[in-house]
Amino acid sequence: MKMFYFTDPMCSWCYGFSPVLKKLKENYPDIDLQIVSGGFSPGSRQTVTEEYRDFLEYHWRNVTARSGQPFDHSMKFVSDTFHYDTEPSSRALAVVQKLLPDWDFEFLSLMQTSFYVKGKDITNDLALAEIAAELGIEKQVFLESFHSEEMKRRTVQGFDFSRQLGVQGFPTLLTLENASVKVVTRGFQSYENMKIIIDGLFRKMATSAPGQGPACTDDSCEC
User: Fold this and answer.
1) Mean pLDDT by 10-residue block, N- to C-terminus, for the chain (223 residues)?
2) 0.90 exceeded by pTM
3) I need a labelling partner for 223 at 20 to 30 A (CA). Which of 42, 44, 80, 88 fits?
4) Which of 54, 129, 52, 64 is nearest to 96 (CA)?
5) How would you classify the pairing of strands 180-186 and 221-222?
6) Rounded distance, CA 34 to CA 215, Å?
7) Which pLDDT does position 220 carry in this prediction?
8) Cβ-based neighbour number of residue 200 at 10 Å
9) pLDDT at position 212, please?
10) Distance between the two ends of the chain, CA-based, in angstroms?
11) Please, which domain of life does this record's source organism belong to (predicted)?
12) Positive/negative CA dihedral, 116, 104, 1, 8
């Protein structure tokens, strides 16, 4: 089963959903999971004002309550130059998907931990290169690819693909068969709930006739 996971490295609910997705990958090896950075707030000039900090705090505490994922609430990434622009981290994911395609989920998880737990500014290209180096990618190789027009285009294509399929928030899982889009889940779900959903999909596939295809809120980050 091919499944698309629409996410964003700077979406807190996606960070909360990350352990769930990890368990799904481990326990359902027959799922061909395609990770797409759908563009939470690319190009945003949003600074972390006191009001926006309160907004983030509220959602981060909800994510922790639902998922158990930890946050560093000191937000060490905040600076006079920081903007909540999710394009650079999305582009970094595209780079790793080209250079080390089998390690894109691991890189996504490293970015999330760097941002939410370590307070690193993952809008910064050098910080992103350091994270990629943890997977063995030479910093200069990463940076050359990161600043290429090809990667900029590929990143925008991910954003466009997300919009074309009607994705309105992150995280979102869906399948695409015979031009028919089926939403698996929108927003955060526990592993127990996801297991029920995925098992149901596999049962439906097993009983389908051959050749017949399948016909920021409090749980997701809105586009």
Assistant:
1) 96 98 96 96 97 97 98 96 98 98 98 98 98 98 98 98 94 89 95 96 78 58 69
2) yes
3) 80
4) 129
5) unpaired
6) 21
7) 77
8) 11
9) 46
10) 27
11) Bacteria
12) positive
Residue 21 belongs to domain spanning = 2-222
Query: How many Cα atoms within 13 Å fall on the side-chain side of residue 61?
Result: 6
Nearest alpha carbon to residue 165 among 204, 109, 101, 223 = 223
Per-residue CA distances from 202 to 71, 91, 176, 206 (Å)? 35, 33, 15, 6
| Predicted local confidence at residue 118, as pLDDT | 98
User: How far does CA 108 lie from the centroid of its chain?
Assistant: 7
Q: Assign residue 77 the CATH number of its domain.
A: 3.40.30.10
pLDDT reported for residue 163: 95
Which pLDDT value is given to residue 108? 98
The domain total for the chain is 1
Burial profile 168-180: b = 16 or more Cβ within 10 angstroms, e = fewer: ebbbbbbbbeeee
